Amino acid sequence: MKTIACLLVVVAMTTVCKAQSIVGRWQLVKESSCVEDDLSPDDAGTEELVNDMKSMSGATPQVLEFKDNNTGHESTKIISRKKSYNSHGFLYRYDNDGLYILDKKSRTIIEGFTVEKLESDSLIITNSARVCETKIFVRIK
Fold first, then answer.
1. Which residue has the higher pLDDT, 23 or 33?
2. Which residues on adjacent β-strands are paired with residue 122?
3. Rounded (to 5) percent helix, strand, coil in the chain
4. In degrees to the nearest 10, what's the CA dihedral of 70, 71, 77, 81?
5. What integer best gives the mean pLDDT of the chain?
6. Which tens digit of pLDDT belongs to each residue from 63-91?
7. Which architecture, in CATH terms, is 21-140?
8. How many angstroms separate the CA atoms of 115 and 2, rounded?
9. CA 62 – CA 31 distance, rounded (Å)
10. What is the pTM of this model?
11. I need a labelling partner for 29 at 20 to 30 A (CA). Which of 5, 6, 59, 84 fits?
12. Which of 121, 119, 123, 39 has its CA nearest to residue 78?
């Protein structure tokens, strides 16, 4: 009987340890776009153009915050670009494979992302509609 109880505790602990939560503050550290994939990587002018475009984003850190109540806040428009609200707040739904941005009024999905990787310190998402758009985040406090 003790053996069965110990096995149940071990299985429960491994399940809990593997589950990662998206709740928290995440800073965007790298972003790839479809434009980079369409351009020739051998051309020096193209590389310079891409670097110029990336440098225009500014020095302000781009931070996402996911809260327990399925609401979130972004410091700049990082993920919820389809609807132009004055607020940087958004609603989201997360399951183990996907992150969905919801319309505030109708609560329908307006943007979807595939969660490629979620660990305690890193998050990688890919736009479901445009698989060439990938965003890499690190967890901040």
1. 23
2. 138
3. 25, 35, 40
4. 60
5. 78
6. 999 999 999 998 877 775 555 555 688 99
7. Beta Barrel (2.40)
8. 39
9. 11
10. 0.70
11. 84
12. 123
